[in-house]
Amino acid sequence: MPLTPQLAEKIRRMPKAELHLHIEGTLEPELIFALAERNGVALPYPSVEALRRAYAFHDLQSFLDIYYAGASVLLTEEDFYDMTRAYIAHAVADHVRHAEIFFDPQTHTARGVPLEIVMAGMERALAEAEIKLGFSSRLILCFLRHLPEEDALATLDAALPYFRSLPHRLIGVGLDSSELGHPPAKFARVFERCRALGLRIVAHAGEEGPPEYIHEALDILRVERIDHGVRAIEDEALLDRLARERIALTVCPLSNTRLKVFDDMADHTLGALLDRGLAVTINSDDPAYFGGYVNANYLAAFESLDLTAQDAYTLARNSFEASFIDDRAKRALIGELDRFWQAS
Ligand code: ADE
Ligand code: ZN
């Protein structure tokens, strides 16, 4: 069934949560150039257009190389504040009520930018948005999996003061960057420490990596959600387990097609995963690099796949159910979603 203008409008306007969003992946080329100029950083591209033209990726690594280069313009608290504010404006426009936002501290501390600057800039923007816009948010610190586990352990140590002083914001840890060759088991010790600290746990798994990495994320890291997870479709027993245990997948359709996980959106397995009873959610991953924010991801999936209004409701409901907010806040947001669908 083709996506009708009425359903497209409902999807745009329905309240939703975003659970898979890298804040460094929201740096639009215009902001990269503005921050480079403000900070006197030389960029290897002559113009915004030339930089945008470089966003032609053939796999995850070809994207990550450009993504880390883009993040090199972030130096001051103001830079992290401006980046976070710009994302919030996009999210609010897309009717995102709650976001759980990833950040990569090692990308910044390795360049000599103190964690204090990173945290202060993001927290100022998020606290302001909470008060002025009612925009709810949490932060999830991601370890870079291409680096040794010792680096992740040191990063956790450095972040302990923020887990203590910002418990309402900084709530958990994740695992991202180059997946192939860096299985979850490589990070068993650091995640064990995180669990002992009572932190929420997620990890990227089954984006490019095999279903075995999803098993490891569940069994060794003991994740509560799987980021991407689309390769679960290759493993029947895993699908049964994900459905039975209600382990949510934070799926990112435009990311998956831009990084050639699927050649075409029509090949995306999101619909099949939903039909199999999995708690699928739709998210934008790195919207500045992949062609759009969360609503663009919903609409791209609905344009190419055989999805219904009931699926739209289920996807948004899953996004609230799978979030790490408390039950009362969850019920309030799901109530808002229900009223939205009943009103039309
Ligand atoms: N870092 C930013 N986006 C990512 C993705 N899609 N996979 C792994 N690491 C990432
Ligand atoms: Zn991601």
Walk me through this protein's architecture.
It is an enzyme of class 3 (hydrolase). It catalyses: adenine + H2O + H(+) = hypoxanthine + NH4(+). Zn(2+) binds at residues 20, 22, 204, 285. It comes from Pandoraea terrae. The active site is at residue 207. This protein has 344 residues and is an alpha/beta fold. The chain has a single domain (5-343), classed as Metal-dependent hydrolases (TIM Barrel), CATH 3.20.20.140. Helix content is 53%, strand content 14%. The protein is built from 17 helices and eight strands. The protein has helices at residues 5-13, 29-39, 48-53, 60-71, 77-93, 105-109, 115-133, 149-165, 188-196, 211-221, 236-244, 253-258, 270-275, 287-290, 294-304, 309-321, 327-342; strands at residues 16-22, 96-103, 136-144, 170-176, 200-205, 225-228, 248-251, 280-282. It has an eight-stranded parallel sheet. Helix 10 links the parallel strand 5 (200-205) and strand 6 (225-228). The two termini are 20 Å apart. Adenine is lined by residues 22, 25, 60, 67, 176-177, 204, 207, 255, 285-286.
